[in-house]
Amino acid sequence: MKYAFLLLLLAEIMMLSALTFEAEELNFYLENNLWEIDGLFHFANYDSLSTHKLIFFPVPSDSLCLPPKIKAIAIQDSNGAEVTMLNQAKKGFTFLLSLPALSFCSLHLDYTQTLKSNYAKYIITTTNSWGRPLPYAKYTLHPGINVQIRSLPFSVQKQEGRNYIWEFFDFAPEKEFEVTFQTIPAEDQN
Amino acid sequence: MKTQIWVNNPITNEIAFNTQFFAEPGALIPFSVQLPVSVEENIVSIPAGKLNLYPSVLNPHWNESIRISYDTKLTGKAELVLYDLKGRHLAEKVYDQNEIEWQLPKLSSGIYFVRLTNQGKALGTAKLIILK
């Protein structure tokens, strides 16, 4: 009975949601066996009622040996928006995002993953589940000093120093953000 | 409560009146509209076009202006109005060329709308995202 009520509540939350995903600005830091994602996710509520949405944030368990370690999850410059972490597992985590009527919010999320090989992956195709292309996406890859990139997720758009920057408008990704790399031994770095 | 009222001309199907206001529950808001009542009257026909805005996402760290164009020639006075997500009027600018650059006021992160009107008729609205 209790679970039936919870299911009904969840169904109601999902159906009532008028939340839209507007943009993401993500920084990927690659150091040895550590993969850190530090980014801003921008959402809007165009409705004249407040909205709540359960969001499942998948992490690629095939490239990881441990569940992600969350360093920060918070609303930036909150105008009444709230985020509540509900569940964390190896394959991802779930949080509840609430926005007041006719509002915009930026969710700051920072987490690290321990890689088990020279392959790092971030799932971006779930963006398509929002039912329309993402108006704007910006990705910056920051390879560490001892990391040599073997392959990138997209052809190079812009490079600043060691960093690779991509920008997309009305983005509907067809594949995940994947990077293969090689670690340079300390004695070979010069 | 944010309320929007628009009236379509039944002959041309163009929007003859379009306004937004914030009303208290139960409040009476008087407004008046003048509509042409027959095809013999001088109906101003505005060709349909597309309102283009570039960039549609703006990070004030890069620049603070946008380029706006309407791909159909307009006659008479045209005006651009900047609204926020709550429908608040933030700024306006005369649109008097095929393409203009608009130096925007300081804006916080959020969703905004640019609306083009010509001779009192709304011709198009484009969305603008500001990220900081």
Q: What is the CATH topology assignment of chain A?
A: Immunoglobulin-like
- What kind of sheet is the major sheet of chain A? 7 strands, mixed
Main β-sheet of chain B: number of strands, strand sense, barrel status? 5 strands, mixed
Show the largest interface.
A-B, 17 and 15 residues
Q: Can you tell me the overall shape of chain B?
A: flat
Low-confidence residue ranges of chain B: none
Q: Termini separation of chain B (Å)?
A: 29 Å
Structure report:
The complex is a heterodimer of chains A (190) and B (132). Chain A has 190 residues and is mainly beta. Chain A has one domain: Sandwich (Immunoglobulin-like). Chain A is 8% helix and 56% strand. Chain A is built from one helix and 13 strands. Chain A has a seven-stranded mixed beta sheet, with no helix packed on it. In chain A, strands 3-6-5 form a three-stranded antiparallel beta sheet, with helices on one face. In chain A, strand 1 and strand 2 form a beta hairpin. About 7% of the residues of chain A have low confidence. Chain B is mostly beta strands and 132 residues long. In chain B, 0% of the residues lie in helices and 48% in strands. In chain B, the strands form three sheets. In chain B, strands 4-10-9-6-7 form a five-stranded mixed beta sheet, with no helix packed on it. Chain B has a three-stranded antiparallel beta sheet with strand order 3-5-8, with no helix packed on it. In chain B, strand 6 and strand 7 form a beta hairpin. At the A-B interface, strand 1, strand 2 and strand 7 of A face loops of B.
